Amino acid sequence: MPRTAATEGFKFNHTMIRIKDPKLSLPFYMDTLGMDLVSEQNMGDFTLYFLAYDHDGIASLPAEQKAKARFNREGILELTHNHGTESDPNFQGYANGNAEPGRGFGHIAITVSNIEEACARFESLGVPFKKRLTDGKMRHIAFILDPDGYWVEIVPQALSL
C-alpha cells in the first residue's frame, strides 16, 4: 500500500531495549558494533542512551542540538537503564524475547560490508554467538549476543535470498 498524504512524513525513529548495566552495554554497542552515542538523558531513577551510526554528523553537534536532531532521523537504538539493576543480586535480567516467558521481540540487525571479517573480529573480541555463519541452513547471516542476551543479527550489505 503506498504512503498517503497523512503518513508521508512518518519515519521509523527508534526502538528501545532495557539494559542491566551501561558499563557493559555501552562498550558493546559503541566499541564492538561501532555505534555513536547521540544523546544521553538522566531521568532520575533511569537513564536513556540513544545510539546510532552517525552518517550525518549528529555526534559532532552540541548536546542540545544533538538531542533535538535524534528525533529527525531513522535507525536509533535507545538503551534504557533502570538505576540499581547493575548491583541488585536478585535481578534476574530482562526477557530477550526469544524464549518463554516473554517471547515476542526477536532481534535487532546490523549490516556489515564484509560479514566474514566482522564475525572473525567478534570472535577475537570474545563476543558470544547465538548462531555462527557455519551453523544451520542460513550461512550468510550470524547472530551475536549483547551483554543482556539480546540477539543482534549480522547481515551482509548485499544479501541474496
Task: Explain briefly what this protein structure is.
By secondary structure, the chain is an alpha/beta fold. The protein is 17% helix and 29% strand.
Give a written overview of the molecule.
This protein is α/β, with parallel strands linked by helices. The chain is built from three helices and eight strands; from the N terminus they run βαββαββαβββ. It has helices spanning 22-32, 63-69, 115-124; strands spanning 14-19, 36-42, 46-52, 76-82, 107-112, 129-131, 142-145, 151-156. Strands 1-4-3-2 form a four-stranded mixed β-sheet. A four-stranded mixed β-sheet has the order 5-8-7-6, with helices on one face. The longest helix has 11 residues, at 22-32. It is globular and about 45 Å long. The two termini are 23 Å apart. The model has no long low-confidence stretch (mean pLDDT 92).
The overall pLDDT average reads 92
Order of helices and strands: EHEEHEEHEEE
Rg estimate, integer Å: 17 Å
End-to-end separation? 23 Å
Strand content: 25-35%
Strand order of the largest sheet: 1-4-3-2
Strand elements, count: 8
Label the overall shape: globular
Spans of at least 5 consecutive residues whose pLDDT stays below 50 are none
List the helices and strands and how they pair.
Elements: E1 14-19, H1 22-32, E2 36-42, E3 46-52, H2 63-69, E4 76-82, E5 107-112, H3 115-124, E6 129-131, E7 142-145, E8 151-156
Parallel strand pairs: 1-4, 5-8
Antiparallel strand pairs: 2-3, 3-4, 6-7, 7-8
